[in-house]
């Protein structure tokens, strides 16, 4: 649904401009990149129980969120898990930001997302996840590091079907698979002390007259193997949702992917690849 609504927005933005086809294309891609930080979805996790107002749990949540704002290192690298207390009564918050949105965008996304979860979307829930374009924030009662989340996820596909003669299912799978390979092999330039893979990749490939744009990302809490397993699971799990579709976002609390027929990540951003034929 998202790509159809963004398409209509883009068309409404410039209805009276008479421009050459190339300029129009340019405007469309610029405005689609500027669809800033949209809220996508949230899930309150009843299985992790609730806390009472004024409880230690609530206090810990508020403190962790305040602490984030003083921790610019987390926003620079785009991932953090902070926890208070011990399992099973742990108060933990994990976030990860889309790698092209590290820094100030990550900071503001995490602040908005945490506050939405805490005050509006899932008040008093010990477990909850919220997804924005640029970040994912997860409240939990246990350590999330190294764990693939198979339970909290969703698929948002474009309303439009691909025509039969255009980009095949295999083409799309191959692009996502190749992006995953890059994500687990490219070294993260923001983490200098250790050679860690960036766990993110974006790119595009031309198919005849059409470009396909893709992005994959894992939470910084996953290992290389965990990232690969998470991506593989979600590429299979939601296939019915996107098999025929022009665009999709598949999101979980630990890995995400997206493809579209229009650009949604700047080709000038880091870890972006233009695949040759
Ligand atoms: C998005 O819009 C801002 C101005 O609001 C502009 O400076 C920036 O270049 C745009 N970004 C892209 C990728 O088009
Ligand atoms: C966890 O918290 C619940 C409710 O506050 C309490 O009943 C339980 O004893 C606590 N468990 C541990 C291991 O502290
Ligand atoms: C897309 O294809 C599916 C399955 O073939 C069909 O049920 C659906 O109506 C089509 N949607 C549109 C918008 O054409
Ligand atoms: C990705 O990998 C497959 C083989 O696994 C290959 O055929 C394909 O051309 C590659 N490139 C892209 C951009 O999909």
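^ structure tokens above, recovered residues below v
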């Amino acid at each position: 649904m998202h790509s159809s609504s963004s398409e209509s927005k883009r068309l409404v933005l410039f209805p009276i401009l008479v421009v050459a086809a190339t300029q129009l294309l340019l405007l469309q891609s610029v405005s689609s990149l500027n669809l800033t930080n949209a809220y996508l979805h949230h899930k309150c996790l009843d299985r992790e129980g609730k806390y009472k107002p004024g409880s230690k749990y609530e206090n810990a949540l508020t403190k962790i969120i305040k602490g984030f704002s003083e921790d610019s290192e987390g926003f620079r690298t785009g991932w953090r898990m902070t926890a208070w207390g011990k399992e099973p009564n742990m108060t933990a918050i994990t976030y990860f930001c889309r790698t092209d949105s590290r820094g100030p965008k990550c900071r503001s996304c995490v602040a908005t997302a945490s506050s939405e979860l805490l005050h509006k979307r899932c008040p008093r829930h010990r477990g909850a996840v919220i997804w924005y374009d640029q970040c994912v924030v997860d409240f939990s009662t246990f350590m999330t590091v190294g764990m693939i989340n198979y339970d909290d996820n969703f698929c948002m596909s474009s309303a439009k079907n691909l025509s039969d003669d255009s980009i095949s299912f295999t083409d799309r799978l191959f692009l996502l698979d190749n992006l995953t390979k890059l994500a687990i092999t490219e070294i993260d330039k923001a983490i200098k002390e250790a050679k860690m893979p960036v766990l993110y990749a974006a790119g595009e490939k031309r198919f005849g007259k059409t470009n396909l744009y893709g992005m994959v990302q894992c939470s910084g809490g996953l290992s290389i193997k965990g990232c690969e397993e998470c991506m593989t699971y979600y590429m299979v799990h939601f296939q019915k949702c996107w098999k025929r579709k022009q665009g999709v976002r598949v999101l979980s609390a630990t890995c995400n992917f997206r493809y579209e027929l229009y650009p949604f990540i700047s080709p000038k951003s880091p870890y972006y690849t233009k695949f040759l034929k």
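The mean pLDDT is 88.
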